[in-house]
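thread: overnight batch results

M.L. [08:02]
morning all. the overnight job finished for the chain we discussed friday. pasting input first so we're all looking at the same thing
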Amino acid sequence: MLDLNNHTVILASGSPRRHRFLKEMGIPFEVRLKSLDEIYPPELKGSEISDYLAKLKADAFEGELQNREILITSDTVVWHNGASLAKAADAEEAFQMLRALSGDWHEVITSVCFTTRGEQKVKNQITHVKFRQLLDEEIKYYVNTYKPYDKAGAYGIQEWIGLTGIEEIKGSYPNVVGLPTQLVYKTLIEMAK
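M.L. [08:03]
and the structure it wrote out:
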């Protein structure tokens, strides 16, 4: 069982998937949200993007953290053929993203920034995922039914498209859902000493 040594975990995410993971790991937490534009320098690639955005989200809380509070901010990037596939703006963009991922490998990178009043650590995990060749009708069905516009790469591995379309995964499954749980648990133990 995780001993947080009287620290309070603050999760700066509205994601129900991240909330569920922390609850299932037995980590008590508060949710504090800030809205900001997730804009990053165009020269950044892969984990540099998610690292930058996770830290950017933490910077929005500068000067607000109390003693013994650990802020968790995170960002997930889907990286494919040298490009980041962010959240889709609409059904057409989601369709095109999934069509690009169809029959190919991509990387799902989640970066987590852990911030206290005196310390900050940014860590990331990379999982390799392969879709089988998806039919256009399958992609349209998924996009129209699940409307995956809040997810990087326009898909949720835990949803229909993941259950029916993913052939192989190398690395952490929770990382693809949106939080590298083992990394989070281990880092919280380190920081709560």
